[in-house]
Design goal:
With about 325 residues, this protein is of the alpha/beta class. The chain has 16 helices and nine strands. The chain folds into two domains: about 150 residues, Rossmann fold; about 170 residues, no CATH class. Helix 9 runs antiparallel to helix 10.
């Protein structure tokens, strides 16, 4: 299931009290989706690493009051009956069987002993699959049957939209636009391999490294040797930022790049920086000069970041001229 579809389904499930489990490989953005849902609904988020829990943590510890034993609830569980939020158990199936068993009552009955989960809270869990070579324990059938299970699928178009919004380096976006299969390429024989998370690391490295040689050594540790060789080869031949800025300074007359990778670099650069007034204005003139297929991509990315771009005269003309491609 694509990330955007996962978001829609989770949004729908907020109207119920059924717990949800997200399955997927490491580094693809499962926890990011949960954080986004919580933020968009103005819900509190309690991120609990199930693998760090002890079987007795959820039950709490007993104390004596008036000759009777009373259980003190854990401080990390929500206590305000009027509060609303998401109780997120990450890495749940990396927790030992006894810890997983301690979640039986909470996930189904929304209570543990004397503790009752407030009505405004929803339970979401996530974990890696057995085939991901991660530390996992088989989930007991009794616990699995308490969840609605969703499989997280890496999707490049969803990632690109997220990357533009997040400000991921334009060279990362443009490179992966031509080598989409390298967005996620898990290799159990190496310590570093390409995932959406490790490409975000690469973006940060490019933004902060003083020189490409220093960046290359760090990138190698993030995405592995094979992907690094391809990416550095792309960087060696990619259009420079100076050339991109020259186009932005003269959007109506500057020569546009002819190589597909450089065209993607231009589109990513414009979309990720369209909050800048000069780039916002230049984007309309460049849009009018792009091939229709590339123009549609630029238009969609710009509208996602800046919806008011739809009012740009060049944008309105492009939409009218290529209505069939946009729908």
């Amino acid at each position: 299931m694509k990330p955007t579809r996962i978001e829609t389904v989770l949004q729908d499930l907020l109207t119920t009290t059924w717990p949800t489990f997200l399955w997927g490989p490491p580094g693809v953005g499962k926890s990011s989706v949960v954080r986004k849902i919580a933020k968009s609904n103005k819900l509190a988020l309690l991120d609990i690493r199930a693998s760090l829990l002890d079987p007795t943590d959820l039950r709490g510890i007993p104390t004596v009051e008036g000759g009777n034993a009373r259980w003190c609830q854990p401080s990390f569980l929500p206590s305000d009956p009027k509060s609303k939020g998401i109780l997120f158990f990450d890495e749940l199936n990396a927790a030992p069987p006894l810890v997983q068993a301690s979640l039986y009552q909470l996930t189904l009955d929304r209570r543990v002993g004397e503790y009752v989960l407030p009505d405004g809270w929803r339970i979401i869990a996530a974990g890696n699959r057995a085939e991901d070579a991660s530390v996992t324990f088989r989930m007991p059938a009794a616990l699995a049957n308490r969840f609605i299970h969703l499989d997280y699928e890496v999707d490049f178009e969803d990632w690109r939209a997220w990357a533009i919004e997040r400000g991921i380096h334009s060279y990362v976006v443009s490179f992966l636009s031509t080598r989409q299969e390298l967005l996620f390429n898990m290799d159990n024989t190496t310590r570093g391999f390409p995932t959406p998370r490790s490409w975000e690391m690469v973006s940060d490295i490019l933004s902060t490294a003083d020189d490409q040689k220093g960046a290359q050594d760090i990138i190698l540790g993030a995405i592995g040797e094979a992907a690094t060789i391809e990416f550095i080869g792309y960087l060696d031949n990619a259009i420079s930022e100076a050339a991109l800025l020259k186009i932005i300074k003269n959007p109506a007359t500057a020569k546009l790049p002819s190589k597909l990778g450089d065209q993607y670099a231009l589109i990513s650069y414009l979309a990720s920086r369209c909050d800048n007034k000069e780039i916002f204005e230049a984007s309309g003139q460049i849009l009018a000069r792009l091939k229709p297929e590339l123009g549609v991509l630029l238009l969609r990315n710009l509208l996602q970041k800046q919806p008011k771009f739809a009012l740009n005269e060049n944008a309105k003309a492009f939409i009218k001229r290529h209505k069939g491609l946009i729908q």
